[in-house]
Design brief:
Layout lengths: L1 H15 L14 E3 L2 H6 L4 E5 L20 E3 L20 E3 L20 E3 L8 H8 L7 E3 L20 E3 L20 E3 L8 H9 L6 E3 L20 E3 L20 E3 L19 E3 L5
Parallel strand pairs: 1-2, 2-3, 3-4, 4-5, 5-6, 6-7, 7-8, 8-9, 9-10, 10-11, 11-12
């Protein structure tokens, strides 16, 4: 049983940032491998390779012979740089580089023309401006995680990654979003979790201008209340305020015209809310076990 759980883990990681509202599913269902040796023995069939937590410092050249890889997990290693030969993996769609020591991305990364999801989270020495310059050249990139990358300011250059649909900047030191963030016209899902510096009330104005944004996560951010200007987020359909210090929901919630689902689990709210103030059609989750 333990062995099966380990094999399933990369799939869970890949799904972690799939938006709550999305009905999409990963299309990768071919041969999965946990070692480079096993994958290389079946290199024509290998589409999924999990090399996470294997003490890697450098990537062996043989990895880049796996031309049919679509999913590659290199997370939780000690990798400082990605070789330029990464561009040989032309079919790569999902690349996990989480929890490494990467400082810069190679310009050759732009050769991954079908790459859709990139996890750069928890690379605390990552040069964000340089990374975004490279990422802006990826024509298919839709999901990007910069969580835990020691960011205090989201650079305005993030809007150059024009096709982004999901952005995770959780576990950072961000108080305000950049003024030009509404230029991310395709962004549907935004995560700003575990950031005690983030001021939701001051950022509502910018978030309200993001025309495609329908799902917002502001979880474990120490919020003591839901600001009344939350009503301006009229396009949001799914709102996650899990793990804050909220003890009351304002009636302005009802003015969020498209809100369908509100998750306020792990807040000091009463077990029964005052339904007279809330739209009965709104689904509210008070406990994540439900």
């Amino acid at each position: 049983m333990k062995k099966n759980l380990k094999i399933a883990l990369p799939f869970c990681i890949a799904l972690q940032f799939f938006p709550f509202s999305s009905q999409a599913q990963l299309s990768i269902a071919n041969t999965q491998f946990k070692t480079l040796k096993a994958a290389f023995a079946h290199r024509d069939e290998a589409t999924w390779l999990d090399l996470s937590n294997q003490g890697l410092v450098v990537l062996p050249d043989s990895l880049f012979a796996l031309k049919n890889l679509q999913y590659l997990d290199l997370g939780k290693n000690h990798i400082e740089s990605i070789p330029s030969k990464i561009t040989d993996l032309k079919k790569l769609k999902y690349l996990v580089l989480s929890y490494n020591e990467i400082k810069q991305l190679p310009v050759e990364l732009k050769g991954l023309t079908v790459l859709q999801s990139l996890y750069l989270d928890h690379n605390k020495q990552l040069e964000i401006d340089q990374a975004i310059l490279v990422l802006s050249e990826l024509p298919s990139l839709k999901m990007l995680s910069l969580a835990g990358d020691n960011i205090s300011v989201v650079p305005q250059s993030i809007t150059k990654v024009k096709r982004l649909e999901t952005l995770d900047v959780s576990d950072n030191l961000i108080s305000n979003l950049p003024e030009n963030i509404p230029e991310l016209r395709k962004l549907r899902v935004l995560y700003i979790n575990n950031d005690a510096y983030f001021n939701l009330e001051k950022n509502v104005r910018l978030i309200s201008k993001m025309k495609s944004l329908t799902e917002l996560h502001v979880e474990n951010d120490g919020l003591t209340s839901v600001p009344s200007n939350i009503k301006d987020l009229t396009r949001i359909e799914y709102l996650f305020l899990v793990g804050n210090k909220i003890n009351e929901l304002p009636p302005e919630i009802n003015q969020m015209k498209h809100l369908r689902f509100l998750d306020v689990s792990d807040n000091p709210l009463p077990p029964l809310l005052n339904n007279d103030k809330l739209d009965p059609k709104l689904v509210i989750r008070l406990n994540r076990r439900n």
